[in-house]
UniProtKB/TrEMBL annotation:
SUPFAM superfamilies: Putative DNA-binding domain, S-adenosyl-L-methionine-dependent methyltransferases. Residues 1-69 form the HTH merR-type domain. GO terms for molecular function: DNA binding; DNA-binding transcription factor activity. The keyword Transcription applies. InterPro entries: DNA-bd_dom_put_sf, MerR-type_HTH_dom, MerR_fam, Methyltransf_25, SAM-dependent_MTases_sf. Keywords: DNA-binding, Repressor, Transcription, Transcription regulation. Gene3D superfamilies: 1.10.1660.10, Vaccinia Virus protein VP39. This is Transcriptional regulator. It comes from the Bacteria.
Length: 347
């Protein structure tokens, strides 16, 4: 097919097609006699992929990178782009909400106070953006994905973070009350071990993870789980979209400040009578952490000290306080010295 026909077929212009050729995204052969470009079916399909990705906002350099990776499917591209757009949307929402509050302050406060209060709101927004942007996967979860399920050791070693793993996952599933047809999101789903336990109850499970490799393993093991690339701090979900939120062994990869922002995100996506159930590595409170760290030091348990300091084991009391202040009824359960469950239901 020649360029004009291709342009007509794909509802674009020959100029746009030539632009993508200049950028090296497509390389159509040229007719030796008249130098006209000739497009094969494969090139037309590649071009339609490029046009689709441009339409949903993927930058050209990203498209080039992604098309070079032959293992990626269209749904992989879409998943990644959806996650990026949600991040932008959430940032925009933060800005709009802040502007609304600034206008309110401007109209109600005295001039001198208004200037200070508006400045404080701007600083709060700056801080929020920083927290959302700063999180990094310093553990490289992509590289764990293939072996993750073998890595979960149930016993042995001087410090076993997965002691009570099975009991914790089962308790989460038995605590959260969801009916068939309801939607539950498993955040930091990894290979889907927790979310999969809800499938037999007829619950629609969305597994969210920042690691694309983890999501690939999850999808392979549990095709019925809908996987979405995304982040605790910018969930790829609309407001009031889900009935339940579950999570296991994931929240302790966020600092204390990040954890509270994650709870805010969960509250945003949860329906009005929604529930949250989290099993994770955490201490009961600050004193409990100190006491446990002293015990490990006295015992010379360097493995425990290293593991705890490499991650951000939570302070359960802070999470519970936040949830109660935000109108949740909260229950807790302690499995062992480092593992707890928090169940929260919106009032
Ligand atoms: C230790 S694995 C636990 C997986 C699974 N929930 C389980 O219990 O078997 C932690 C998972 O959380 C994900 N994770 C960590 N931090 C995250 C974040 N900020 N946003 C989304 N996922 C995150 C990791 O990519 C990883 O897949």
């Amino acid at each position: 097919m020649q360029i004009k026909e291709v342009a007509r077929k794909l509802n674009t212009t020959p100029r746009t097609i030539r632009f993508y050729e200049e950028k090296g995204l497509i390389t159509p052969k040229k007719n030796e006699g008249n130098d006209y470009r000739l497009f094969t079916d494969e090139e037309i399909s590649r071009l339609s992929t490029i046009l689709t990705l441009r339409e949903i906002g993927v930058p050209i350099r990203e498209i080039k990178k992604r098309l070079e990776n032959k293992n990626m499917t269209m749904s992989d591209y879409l998943n990644i782009q959806r996650s990026a757009l949600y991040e932008q949307w959430i940032e925009m929402k933060d800005m709009i909400t802040t502007i609304d509050r600034m206008i309110e302050v401007e109209q109600t406060d005295q001039v001198k106070h208004a200037i200070n209060n508006i400045y404080e709101l701007a600083q709060h927004l700056k801080n929020l953006k920083k927290i959302r942007k700063n999180w990094q996967d310093k553990w490289d979860f992509d590289s764990w994905a293939a072996d993750f399920d073998h890595y979960i050791k149930r016993d042995g070693h001087t410090f076993n973070v997965h002691q009570d793993y099975d009991e914790a996952l089962n308790r989460v599933i038995n605590t959260i009350e969801l009916a068939s047809g309801e939607t539950c999101v498993d955040i930091g789903t990894g290979t889907g071990n927790l979310g999969a336990k809800l499938l037999s109850k007829g619950v629609h499970v969305i597994g969210i993870d920042q690691s694309e490799q983890m999501l690939m393993v999850c999808k392979e093991k549990h095709p019925a789980i809908e996987t979405r690339k995304g982040h605790f701090l910018a969930l790829p979900l609309m407001d009031n979209q889900v009935d339940g939120i579950i999570s296991s062994y994931a929240l302790h990869h966020l600092t204390d400040n990040e954890k509270l922002l994650a709870l805010e995100e969960m509250t945003r996506v949860l329906k009005s009578n929604g529930q949250i159930c989290i099993a994770d590595l955490m201490f009961v409170n600050k004193e409990h952490r100190q006491q446990m760290m002293e015990t490990y030091r006295r015992e010379g348990n360097t493995e425990a000290i290293y593991s705890i300091e490499d991650e951000y084991y939570g302070d359960r009391s802070k999470l519970v306080d936040w949830l109660m202040q935000h109108d949740y009824i909260v229950e807790t359960y302690q499995f062992n010295n480092i593992l707890s469950m928090i169940y929260a239901k919106k009032k």
